[in-house]
Amino acid sequence: MSPNGSQARREEILRLATTTGLASVEELSRHFGVTASTIRRDLARLTADGRLARTYGGAMALNAHPEASLRQRTTEAYAQKRAIARWAAAQVQPGETVLLDAGSTVGALAHELRTARDLTVATTGLTALHELADVESVHVECLGGTLRPLSQAFVGPLTEAALERMTFDRVFLSADGVTADGGICEADLRQTRLKELMARRAARTYVLAHAAKLGRAPFHAWATLPQGWTLVTDSSATDADVAAFTERGIRVVLAEPVGEPAPLQEG
Amino acid sequence: MSPNGSQARREEILRLATTTGLASVEELSRHFGVTASTIRRDLARLTADGRLARTYGGAMALNAHPEASLRQRTTEAYAQKRAIARWAAAQVQPGETVLLDAGSTVGALAHELRTARDLTVATTGLTALHELADVESVHVECLGGTLRPLSQAFVGPLTEAALERMTFDRVFLSADGVTADGGICEADLRQTRLKELMARRAARTYVLAHAAKLGRAPFHAWATLPQGWTLVTDSSATDADVAAFTERGIRVVLAEPVGEPAPLQEG
DNA sequence: AGACTCTTGCGCATAACGCGCAGTCATGCG
DNA sequence: CGCATGACTGCGCGTTATGCGCAAGAGTCT
């Protein structure tokens, strides 16, 4: 808080509100050690500037793609997915061109890449597209195709045709389920075929799947996991799960869900 | 309110809140002819269900793609754009395949098409994509391409390549400016070329532009307006403006911003 | 008919709100 | 240096919205 105390506090309020999705006057008051009046004044000002929306006991973020929207946060395995996304984002080097699949975990990765610079991101998912739509420092290519409403993913001939026109340094795939035997499990054969095509166009392939997805086979369309691919999961994966993959020449990474423990509990 | 009065009222409250973006307890109370207590109870219940967010004097919608988000509503010329969108949506017949450009007015059209059935929508704009992403009754194709951050539009080789694989019953184009002499004015030559290609693939071409855009030339990339195209604008266009277009064989439609006069002022 | 549920309207205590006033601190000017 | 100015904060006030309990009405099932 070096330059301007109140200004910095307002920015921090905004950050907290967008991170948490919701922030109460009382929490903020305690967090900054100022009276509720001051917080209220800040909120009034931020609201007048159209930067957040006032609620009864506090304020909420109004934009839908903040650091972690309320909706996202309520998603299951949020911490794990975020840990995986952070590890994956750290792999991406400046100047690279990467391909992002659809899915919530890869969407979280897209969010992490918002701060990247000198990066080209191509994607087959609406989530990633939306996460990066307003980021000027990232060049975004959409592969297009038929939109699957449930998974928010693009599939089909248009997608495959677009894929033939590009190659990538890294591709990050999602999965509905992953087993060491079968590989990636999806609901739809078009999706599995697309994943195979995507991997074929990239120098390095990563599969992002939190531990609960390991060993699961909720559907019946499969794409095999070749040697050399990297499976990124979280640290709650069992040793047996991990061993099954490593024995087959799959590199397994366990992302640790550290980071910020709880964003807004006392200061 | 035939089946269940309170249930229906809550749904209506939700609709009003999402339409208006914001609804006050007092307004709602007057609108339904019930006490503020009842409204408060309704709001508490809807909030508990996570369907809207409570504010001090009322409630606000929390999702970003409702009938008309707060953001949209604050957009200039909202009523005009909506009137244009409604007229355009009424042209679309069941079973057709239509192409939607980027832009806020066309985005409003996409919103109107949410209730359509047996319809295929292809688009070069992220706005339309997002409007229709969760609608199961509409088949959505994204043409893909490079995402222009400012206009949320796809342009470039991928988009053009995808266009070559489809034709359309109707295409709805947007414009940064429209003049009778020059035609459609845009910031970028890639955009104007794309619009020409789009029109070439469609049986009928509509240009959606509210009256304030007529005669304006904010940039310097142009696409001519051939005879047979339809320019859809709002009723605030001057006779001179309209005449300039009709003299050149352009059909001009003036959409009347009627519908709901003011969604929530007394009932 | 009687009991039950759901809902509504009303009154009241409480909490959050906006506003005005005074005090503090940093900055700028004569 | 002295003083005025402006931004910010804390405090107390009256106002307003809120939540809860209670009683009454409408509809349903036994």
Give a written overview of the molecule.
2 copies of one chain form a homodimer. With about 270 residues, the first copy, chain A, is an alpha/beta fold. Chain A has 2 domains: about 5-60, Arc Repressor Mutant, subunit A, CATH 1.10.10; about 70-255, 3-Layer(aba) Sandwich (Rossmann fold), CATH 3.40.50. The first copy, chain A, has helices at about 5-20, 25-30, 35-50, 70-75, 80-90, 105-110, 125-130, 155-165, 190-200, 240-245, and strands at about 20-25, 55, 60, 95-100, 120-125, 140, 145-150, 155, 170-175, 175-180, 185, 200-210, 220-225, 230-235, 250-255. A 7-stranded parallel β-sheet of chain A has the order 6-5-4-9-12-14-15, with helices on both faces. In chain A, strands 1-3-2 form a 3-stranded antiparallel β-sheet. In chain A, helix 2 (about 25-30) packs across helix 3 and helix 5 crosses helix 6 (about 105-110). Chain A starts with a helix and ends in a 12-residue tail after the last strand. Chains A and B meet through strand 2, helix 7, strand 6, strand 7 and helix 8 of A and helix 4, helix 7, strand 6, strand 7 and helix 8 of B. Strand 7 (about 145-150) of chain A pairs antiparallel with strand 6 of chain B. The structure holds a DNA duplex (30 and 30 nucleotides).
